[in-house]
């Protein structure tokens, strides 16, 4: 099937890396595009092939795979692939294969070089897309659905990492100066200076490593279905905010003077279900523009799918045949993925359960956000048995070393062993009690669970749509120092409390976000019901109209037969 020039222009206007061009620019790019056709299961390029061109998918389907089996993206109309060839001459690091009869547009490297200076914005957009695809292959995103793939994936600007490293580096330098003074001026006859330096250096290096991991764990992601902001504090806190592309209302930028100096900004995405702030991003202007392009494409695609769905429902009600093979296949893939996840789950053993997520204060599992009380509360509960254990150990060391020879060693060691065992049981009980107090936010409920080890369980829950107000407060010096407090959720005449949770302002935002998500889901149910109702009216009218015509036809025939 031939490809018309106007068809190419329309497609390029919807491709994110070209969507900012005016009519002249689109025509300039369109004249450089070469038309290609691929049949089912034919390779566009393979791993290790030379990088010579970028491709735009006009129609059909392309699978991108790392190996023969590992598919990481399925592309449809308007998506690009192979774009790394325009900026780098490295061999292909993935395979592109047609899964249907497919029509492509090819932009060769030589042709791109003729326009890259004329339209410099294309190169910056290409750089964002290339780095995103390379990073997406390195990052594990287990929450992604079938048929979902990454458009944009980036971290915070490197300047943020530099700012995070100032304190640990300053700590190492000051510790080095202090250790030098101790070793060579104050106590030269003792090795205290060297010991101080070694301990400080180890602490400083671990601090630097933790800061780097913390920076690397924050991601901003745009897939073909949603916008996601992932923020993690290593081993302690994990937050994921997301919103479907179809719920976006507006996209804006915010930058401070320092951000302008270093070239980064916040991208603020306003949605029906809340606000997602994508913090400290490089190429923020480009990313905001790309999100807007994906958003508009999703809106037009939703309208097309809505028309298809109405056509399907009407076809079913009127008894017409309707081809749902592809939709059925997608649903089957999703169901297979869910079934595989359920079958793959195993019940953990006691110790695996006890020490899983050892000190994490926020994490997500099975779609639910789970919070624990701040670990400061745990420390308050175990400081006494921990102090007794340390004191008992010190006494035991003194007895073994002969420093407390006035005490009979055998009865003392037996008493110490009993104290250590009792304190260990005491601390384990307090840890299990702290661990068992959970606060959950599911897709439709807020749940407060208080469970005593080997004792009673109290569970309170409320539907998200019944929440009237959400407040939080941080009380006392320690609450402000360690950033924990209590979140109050008013539901009718009752009040649920999330006590001593880390970052209560973010907990409040999580609840607001899930509330908006729940309301959007309920709104979608109402839309589906309205669609069903309208289709039933149309089908009833059609059946009545057909019956009326049949009756009129029979009456006319009777009049002819019986004049």
**Structural class based on helices, strands and sheet pairing:** alpha+beta
Radius of gyration: 32 Å
Specify the CATH homologous superfamily of the domain at 361-512.
Pleckstrin-homology domain (PH domain)/Phosphotyrosine-binding domain (PTB)
- Approximately what portion of the residues adopt beta-strand conformation? 15-25%
At CATH's second level, what is the architecture of the domain at 361-512? Roll
Number of beta-strand segments: 23
- What fold name goes in the CATH topology slot of the domain at 361-512? PH-domain like
Q: Give the neighbour order of strands across the main sheet.
A: 16-17-18-19-20
Cα-to-Cα separation, first versus last residue = 58 Å
Total helical segments: 14
CATH class of the domain at 361-512: Mainly Beta
Largest sheet geometry: 5 strands, antiparallel
Rough outline: globular
Instruction: Indicate the low-confidence ranges by residue numbers.
Output: 321-348
Mean pLDDT: 81
Percent helix, as a range, is 40-55%
């Amino acid at each position: 099937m031939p490809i018309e020039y106007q068809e190419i222009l329309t497609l390029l206007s919807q491709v994110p890396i070209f969507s900012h061009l005016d009519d002249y620019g689109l025509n300039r790019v369109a004249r450089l595009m070469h038309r290609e056709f691929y049949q089912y299961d034919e390779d566009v390029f393979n791993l290790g092939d030379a990088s010579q061109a970028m491709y735009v998918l006009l129609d059909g389907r392309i699978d991108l795979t790392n190996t023969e089996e590992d598919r990481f993206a399925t592309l449809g109309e308007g998506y690009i692939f192979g774009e790394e060839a325009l900026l780098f001459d490295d061999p292909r690091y993935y395979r592109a294969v047609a899964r249907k009869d497919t029509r492509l547009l090819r932009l060769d490297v030589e042709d791109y070089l003729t326009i890259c200076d004329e339209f410099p914005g294309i190169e910056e957009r290409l750089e964002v897309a290339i780095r995103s695809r390379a990073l997406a292959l390195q990052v594990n995103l287990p929450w992604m659905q079938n048929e979902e793939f990454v458009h944009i994936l980036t971290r915070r600007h490197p300047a943020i990492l530099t700012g995070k490293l100032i304190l640990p580096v300053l700590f190492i330098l000051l510790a080095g100066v202090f250790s030098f003074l101790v070793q060579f001026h104050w106590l030269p006859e003792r090795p205290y200076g060297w010991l101080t330096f070694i301990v400080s250096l180890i602490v400083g290096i671990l601090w630097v490593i933790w800061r780097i991991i913390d920076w690397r764990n924050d991601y901003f992601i745009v897939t073909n279905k949603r916008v996601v902001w992932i923020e993690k504090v290593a081993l302690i806190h994990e937050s994921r905010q997301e919103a479907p592309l179809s719920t976006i209302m507006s996209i804006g930028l915010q930058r401070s003077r320092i951000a302008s100096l270093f070239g980064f900004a916040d991208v603020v995405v306003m949605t029906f279900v809340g606000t997602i702030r994508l913090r400290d991003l490089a190429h923020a202007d480009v990313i905001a523009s790309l999100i807007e392009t994906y958003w508009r494409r999703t809106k037009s695609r939703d309208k097309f799918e809505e028309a298809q769905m109405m056509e399907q429902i009407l076809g079913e009600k009127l008894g017409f045949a309707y081809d749902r093979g592809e939709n059925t296949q997608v649903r089957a893939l999703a169901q297979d993925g869910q079934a595989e996840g359920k079958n793959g789950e195993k019940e953990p053993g006691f110790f695996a359960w006890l020490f899983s997520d050892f000190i994490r204060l926020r994490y997500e599992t099975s779609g639910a956000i789970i919070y624990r009380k701040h670990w400061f509360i745990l420390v308050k509960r175990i400081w006494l048995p921990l102090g007794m254990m340390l004191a008992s150990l010190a006494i035991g060391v003194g007895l073994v070393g002969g420093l407390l020879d006035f005490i009979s060693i055998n009865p003392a060691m037996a008493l110490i062993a009993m104290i250590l065992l009792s304190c260990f049981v005491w601390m384990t009980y307090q840890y299990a009690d702290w661990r068992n107090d959970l606060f959950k936010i599911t897709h439709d409920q807020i749940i407060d669970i208080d469970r005593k080890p080997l004792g009673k369980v109290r569970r309170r829950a409320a539907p998200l749509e019944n929440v009237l107000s959400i407040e939080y407060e941080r009380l006392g010096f320690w609450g402000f120092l360690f950033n924990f407090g209590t979140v109050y959720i008013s539901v009718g005449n009752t009040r649920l409390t999330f006590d001593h949770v880390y970052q209560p302002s973010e907990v409040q935002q999580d609840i607001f976000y899930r509330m908006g998500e729940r309301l959007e889901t309920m709104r979608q149910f109402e839309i589906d019901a309205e669609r069903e109702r309208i289709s039933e009216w149309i089908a009833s009218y059609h059946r009545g109209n057909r019956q009326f015509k049949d009756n009129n036809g029979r009456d006319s025939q009777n009049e002819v037969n019986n004049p």
